[in-house]
Arsenite methyltransferase
Amino acid sequence: MMRWWPGKPQGLSSTATSPWAAAFSWPCHGASPLSSTQHPPRYYGCGLVIPECLSSCRILDLGSGSGRDCYLLSQLVGEQGHVTGIDMTEGQVWHRPGPPLHPPSSPPTSFSSSCQVEVAKKHIAYHMEKFGYRKPNVEFFHGYMEKLGDAGLSDESYDIVISNCVINLAPDKGAVLREAFRVLKPGGEMYFSDVYASQRLSETIQQHRVLWGECLGGALYWRDLYSIAEEVGFSPPCLVTASPITIGDKELEDIIGDCRFVSATFRLFKVPAGSWARPAQVIYNGGIVGHERELVFDANFTFKEGEVVDVDAEMAAILQSSRFAEKFLIRAGGAAALQGCCCKGAKVSRGQLHGWVKELRPECPMPSE
């Protein structure tokens, strides 16, 4: 994974591209943003990557950086939950005169002495005291997300794996998903945000130092995500949100040509064999903190408390086998859904994200396959 990640320089107020600029709102999980941390101003994600129903969960954060997401999650899972952060960066500020850029094939000449994992560890005691925990429920490791075993992370040990705009930096994205699948418990979820491309990237784009640093040069062709997920054993990806990325730089636009990029959040589930295998009707019982009356699960399904929703076999299996099971009544389908069903229309398939991005940015037509 360590090809090139000097990080965005502190004090940079604008960038050539906008994968970090997509609007997002603070998710309602019963906790407000942590306001008085002692962290330096370093945060490089695509927004907040925080799923629902987290109480007492064990969560792994791939590419945890200085630990901000981990500390927020450590509050949300509660004292009985646990959060592990793993990060491979040696530092995110590259010290040399001039622009902090270098080709992906060239190693940095000098990194700041404090690696991100050490930065994160410094604040464990502070946050545990702030949350009123008797013992730490968060830990950090230096390692590679393609080789979680090297960091001592065992099979089927986590309920949720999250990742915030770092998988694009991994040369072998299949290895990342395989490792995530390995460490997830049956019924576990991978919930992650990243940058995707409308086509497979040329070598020129992949090797461009600015595009790589802006998380575009390593973007996965979005259809390949579906193929990799299927190969690894995950359920088909559930698209949560997607926003087009604006380049805003003529020189870079000339380099990328007709390729388009999108920042998207997906959820994948490790559905065990023998799970529900037929369409069903489900009723949300409510009660998830911050989503008591309505749960927006993905782009296809919104569940309102007490209302019947027809779901396909894949969604039924996800709900029946995951941490959401106790929040739903699931019964065999066949009858028409009651009035007030909140299914948002036809399912977003692997072939429709392509059209969705085109709809989001109609002035930039996406190429046909």
Residues 23 and 189 are 24 Å apart (CA to CA). DSSP finds ten helices and 13 strands in the chain. The radius of gyration is 21 Å. The mean pLDDT is 79.
